[in-house]
């Protein structure tokens, strides 16, 4: 049984940095995002870890975990949104208080995927993979990014539909800021390995494959136990995105996931757009996808709105979903069912 938090009007957002903090020269991004959210009726509370960054992390692991645990336990904090991802979130997992985890949203992406997935696998509490805090600093948000609020406001028993974006961002233009943060210039096109229309159904799990692969074999990556305890053995749809890996590293990671049983009873896979996926010896990412589809005998959709090439659909770990891909377009209908 999956438990779903609910985002209420006027919610208090707790901002903590369980992975990377924000260096001094970029503090303005957090302050601007906080101001925008407050203008939209939220209250924003920032922890100490947000403002520091040294040696690839915001603070020592124990301090990062303690601040997260405090915000999770604080009844005045309704949702936790870190400023962004980073590199070393995995260090804090052994210090997280999963036994006393409160039913509140945690929203983020990238390195934060490890925390999101671990929470859902260990507790059955749904978590949200989507925008991070600093990308909410714009005068406006594109339609895809802006859906985070509607999705997290969905009540248990309800459903919410998201559609593929019209355009995505090819590269950042920090010297040419956009009112909506992103420069959406390239036509979005969802693709399928079969080159046919695809429809898949199941419970969503996923995140950044660069980091969640490291949960395999740990107490924080027991997919089999999660499936038996919270899903009664039902099918899973994995959504994955590659931040930095070349194609052979991606292939190794997917084989590891397969051998670890993560793809048992998997009804389909989705892969986000990526600026990585560098071919090795003419071994392309399409080769990786085709091989995996053949091995597992399931449909694969790729170049979806997920990951480090924005914008992003808000995916809910644990939610039941119906995903469709047809003629370059896609949709994700998520049901907040137990």
TrEMBL record:
CDD domains referenced in this protein's UniProt entry, alphabetically: Peptidase_S66_mccF_like (cd07062)
Keywords in alphabetical order: Carboxypeptidase, Hydrolase, Protease
Any Pfam family the entry gives: Peptidase_S66
InterPro entries attached to this UniProt entry: Carboxypeptidase_A_C_sf, Class_I_gatase-like, LdcA_N, Peptidase_S66_N, Peptidase_S66C, S66_fam
The organism's place on the tree of life at top rank: Bacteria
Catalytic machinery residues: 110 (nucleophile), 241 (charge relay system), 308 (charge relay system)
Residue stretches making up the LD-carboxypeptidase N-terminal domain: 13-130
Domain LD-carboxypeptidase C-terminal: residue ranges: 201-323
An MF annotation (GO) of this entry: carboxypeptidase activity
Descriptive protein name: LD-carboxypeptidase
Source organism of the structure: Neobacillus mesonae
Organism classification: Bacteria, Bacillati, Bacillota, Bacilli, Bacillales
